[in-house]
Design a protein that fits this description.
It is a multi-pass membrane protein. The chain is mainly alpha-helical and 157 residues long. 64% of the residues lie in helices and 0% in strands. The protein has one domain. The longest helix has 29 residues.
Length: 157
Amino acid sequence: MGKASDDETAVILRKLGIICPAFYAIYFVVVVLLALAFNLDCNNDQCRYYRLPFYFKMEDFRPEGNDQALVAWLSQVIVFLLSTLLMYYIVASTSRSWDYACTLAFIHTVVTCAVNADFPTNWVWWVTLVLSTFTLSSLGEITNYARDMKDIVVDMD
């Protein structure tokens, strides 16, 4: 159940101001951990840790492709799943989970375009983004709904 203050612009901007940096902090931690787990050499200009969250090169997203694309894809999926915690603790509104999930996905798309100076045309990246956004929204709604329902006491007498 959302509170009346959840619709106020100042509250929305404050929550977005917390969620966006937290989202990218989680993203970079996951990217570094996965890059280290896959022994990815990110000391050259082709692969930098700070660019992996925004990686979408089509030629690398194939079964025999390199680990850089796999790390980028896995990190995107894992981060959107972990962002459910952001929805639960920061958004804390069942009705607003979809809004914040879509806003995060939109911001991530804009930042990805800005970092790469290119528009992502990779279908794998887009399908992953759409499904991850839907999953984040759904899990955010479910977790917030469960918390809201916990407060309701049913007296069977």
